[in-house]
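Subject: for your reference before the review

Hello V.,

The reviewers asked for a structural picture of the protein, and I figured it would be easier to keep everything in one thread rather than splitting it across files. Below is the amino acid sequence we used in the manuscript, unchanged from the supplementary table.
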Amino acid sequence: MRARPERVAEKADGSFYFRPIAGSSSTKDYRCPGCAQLIRQATPHVVAWPVEKALLSESAIDERRHWHTACWSRRH
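And here is what came back from the structure prediction:
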């Protein structure tokens, strides 16, 4: 199975890489930062991380977050 390439989104707080995640590839629950609700395993969603890392992070990928697709779409 090939990984889907990331895309870049411009948001009010910066540029972010994001990638849709197929429900079948998700093996654990995540908490969406957009609505604070759980994203249950096997639910399609979006994973996103900043293009540029924060000052105290080792790398930008350490800042990745899992979002409900609708919450990510509504994000400014």
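For the response letter, the relevant points are probably these. The first strand starts at residue 7 and ends at 11. Strands lie at 7-11, 14-21, 30-31, 38-39, 45-50, 65-67.

Happy to draft the paragraph if you're swamped.

O.
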